[in-house]
Amino acid sequence: MDEKKVVAKKKEPEIKDFTICDATRQMLEKARRDGVETAFDRAANMKPCPIGAESACCKNCSMGPCRFNSRDPYAKVGVCGATIDTVQARNFARMVATGAAAHTDHGMAMVDLFREVVNGHITEYRIKDEDKLIKVAQSIGIETEDRSVKEIATDLYEELERTYTQVEGEIPFAKRVPEKTLETWRKLGIVPRGAMREIMELMHRTHIGVDQHYENITRQSNRTALADGWGGSMVATEISDILFGTPTPVAVDVNMGVLKEDHVNVIIHGHEPNMFESMMVSVNEPTLVQAAKDAGAEGINLVGMCCSGAEMMSRHGVPHAGNFMSTEAILVTGAVDVMCVDIQCIKQGLVSVADCYKTPLITTNPRAHIEGATHIEFDDHNPQKCTDDVVIKAISRFKNRTAAIEIPNIRNAGVHGFSHEYINYMLGGSFRSSYTPLNDNIINGRIRGVAGVVGCTNPRIKQDWAHVELVKALIKNDVLVLQTGCSQISLAKEGLCTPEAAYLAGPGLREVCETVGMPPVLGLGSCVDNSRILIAASEMVREGGLGDSIADLPAAGAAPEWMSEKAISIGQYFVASGVYTVFGVTFPIVKETKFHKLLFEGLEEQGLGKWGFTADPYEMAKMMIAHIDKKRQALGIDKARDRVLRDMSDRRDIEAA
Prior knowledge:
- By secondary structure, this protein is of the alpha/beta class.
- The chain folds into three domains: 84-244, Substrate Binding Domain Of Dnak, Chain:A, Domain 2, CATH 1.20.1270; 256-399, Rossmann fold (3-Layer(aba) Sandwich), CATH 3.40.50; 417-636, Rossmann fold (3-Layer(aba) Sandwich), CATH 3.40.50.
- It is built from 24 helices and 15 strands.
- It has helices at residues 22-34, 39-45, 50-53, 84-118, 130-139, 149-165, 179-188, 195-205, 214-244, 273-282, 286-294, 306-316, 350-356, 383-399, 420-428, 436-443, 465-476, 485-493, 507-516, 530-543, 565-577, 594-605, 617-635, 648-656, and strands at 57-58, 66-67, 250-254, 264-269, 300-305, 336-341, 361-363, 374-375, 412-416, 449-453, 479-483, 521-523, 555-559, 580-583, 611-613.
- Helix 4 runs parallel beside helix 9 (214-244) and helix 12 (306-316) packs across helix 18.
- It is globular.
- The chain starts with 21 loop residues before the first helix and ends with a helix.
C-alpha cells in the first residue's frame, strides 16, 4: 500500500489580529467568506526582506545589488567601495526625494489651478476666502492695502511659483520661519531654494560616484524635505483654503456606517481637493439626483476616504468611511456603487476587489492610471464632464446591483476642521485672536506640551491600535494632540475627536478642553496639512515664553504606522524644523552605524530636531513625554505655577476693568 503524503493546510491568520476597527474586521470576515484577498492577507503571506527593511542593500548601479550584514555592517563595502553609511544615506535620501516630489507636484498643481482661476481661464472655481488670501499675501511681504483681490492674487501666485522653479535665494514661506530657526538653517546651508532644484540635486547626489559622505547627503536631504514642508505642502494647504474655504470645526460621522443601502454610494479616495469639490456639485445636480431616484434610489450619498476625504470632512463636513487600510474592505460591503480615485496611496489591489463586487473603479488623474481600472480624465477647465460621468456610472451600477449588501452599522461622531486660523480664534476670540492662552497654559503646566500624531496605517501592525494607544497615553499625561491624515481617522473611530473625550485627559488638559469646549485631539485635515502644524509651532514661538526657535518648544511628533516615502519626507522636514519625531513599525536604518547616530543624535546637536523609533506605542509615549519634559526643564517651566485659567467672560471683565 502506497503511503499518502498528507499536506497540512496552512493556518490562516486570525482576522482579529489585523485591526481594532470593528467595521473593517466585519468586512474582512465577509471577504474571507467571499474568497476575496486584501492587503492584510498579502502582508501576512509576504514577509518583508530583512536586508531591505534596514536599507542594507544598494541597487543604484548594475555592478550590484550589493548587500551588507546588519550584524557587522562595516565588515565589507560595496563593489564601488561604498560603505554602509553611504548606502543608507543614499537610500534614505531617495525616499525623502520621492516623498517631497509627491507633495511638491500636488502643490504645484494647486498653484496651476489658482493661476487659471485668477486669470479667468477656469470659471468653475473661485476665491472663496478673500481674508485668507490677504493674510497669506501679507505673510510673505506682498502689499495688500488699497489693492483689488485680483491684483493681490496675481502677485501671490507669481510669488508662490518660486517655491518650485527658483534656482537661487530662499523659498517664499521661509519668511514664516521663526528667526532663530531660520538662522540655524542658514548656518547649516539648508534653507530651500526651489523644490525642483532641491529634489533634482538630491537625486543627482545619490547616483553612483557622486556624493559619498553620509553627512553631506543628509544635509541635502534636510534641504529637500524643508522644500516639502515649508514649500510644496504649505502651498497646497494655503491655496486650497483660499479657493475652497478655510476649515472651521464641523461635526462629522466617520466609519463604514455612513454608507446607505438605499442610496447611490459614491466614494472619493485620493489627495487632490479639486476633483472632490467638483464631485460635490455633480452629486447635487438635480438631473442626476432625479436619475438616481428613477433608478430606485432615495438619493446620492457622497463619502470620502483617505486624505482627500479628510480634507473634505474638515472643510465641508462630508462623511468619511475609513483610512488607507480600509479602502479595500469597504468595497466588500457590496454597497459602493463607484470608487473614484486620483493620486497617492491608491492600492493597485483595489482593482481585483472592486471587480469581485462589480464596482466601477475609476482613475481620473493623468499621473495615475491603474491597469484594469476605467480612466476618465479630470480637466479643471471642464470638471463636470468627468464627475457627471462618474455619477452616471454609479447610478447604473446601483440599478444593476448583484452583490449581497452588508454594511457595518457603525458610525462614530467627531468634530474636525481645526485650522490654524480657527485655533487662533478659539483660543482668543474675535478681537483677541492669539496663541497666548495656549502658551500660558503650557507655561503654567496645565498643558504639558503639544504632540503631532500623524501618518498612515500599515498592515505590518494591527490597524489603528498604535495610533489609539499612543494618543490615549499622551492626553492622559496632559499633552494636547494635533492630528492629520489617516491617523486622524483612527482616532475619530475611537471617539477621541469629541469634546466629551476630555474625560480621558489628565486634569490640566481636561480643564483647558472643558473651558474652551474643544476635544483633546484636534483634527487638522489631510497629510499635506501637516503644514498647519508647522504654522502652529511657529506661532507658539512668536507668541513668546516658549523659547526662540521651534527646537525649543515642549513638543514632539510621531507616525506610529507610517508606510510611504511621503512619511519619510514629512518626518525629515519636522526633524529639520526642530521637532523630535518618533516613527513606529520599522525604520530603514541599521543601528549603531554612523548614519544612524547622525539622525538619532547628531542633527539635534546641530540645533535641529532628531529621530526616534519604537514599535511599542506605550514606549513611544514615554519617549515623547520625556522629550517634552526635557524641553520644559530647559525653559525653566518644569514646575507648574499656580495660575488661574481664564475663560472668555473672565478676560472681558479684566479688559473692562
